[in-house]
Amino acid sequence: MYRWVDHTSELELRIEASSPEDAFAEAMAALSELLDGSIRGTAERHEISVSAPDRATLLAEWLNELVYLADTSGFVADRIEHIALGETVMDATVAGLRGEPRPLVKAVTYHRLELTETDDAWRARVIFDV
């Protein structure tokens, strides 16, 4: 489950998921919706590998890579076919469409970034500069 929280020239994304992998999938789904969940175009797959010092930063790097693909090639991921998530590295295969997504997101910030495990869920917060 994800929801958007308004900020001045920023959008805050809050995620609640049953696993860290599900948190990454929810983050991708939210970004896909933001960029234009109804995009039509050519089907594609991409391999994505990111590394970072911790899982919260991995989440930001994951989203920054997805924003980069949208900006540079018009690709919007809407499905994870494979994900291997460690503490400091992540490898994934994503599927989606190449088209003309909205150029809304400038970057994923590290401001108030979090990915934490609670007794019953994983919670994440990511802020997008728009």
Structure description:
This protein is globular. The mean pLDDT is 91. Helix content is 28%, strand content 45%. It has a domain at 43-100: Archease, Possible Chaperone, Chain: A, domain 1, CATH 3.55.10. Helix 1 packs parallel to helix 2. It is built from two helices and eight strands, in the order ββαβαβββββ. It is an alpha+beta fold and 130 residues long.
Could you name the key traits of this structure?
five-stranded antiparallel sheet; alpha+beta; Archease, Possible Chaperone, Chain: A, domain 1; 130 residues; globular
Give the helices and strands, then pairings.
Elements: E1 2-7, E2 10-17, H1 20-36, E3 42-51, H2 55-73, E4 75-85, E5 89-98, E6 107-108, E7 114-117, E8 122-129
Antiparallel strand pairs: 1-2, 2-8, 3-5, 4-5, 6-8, 7-8
Helix pairs in contact: 1-2
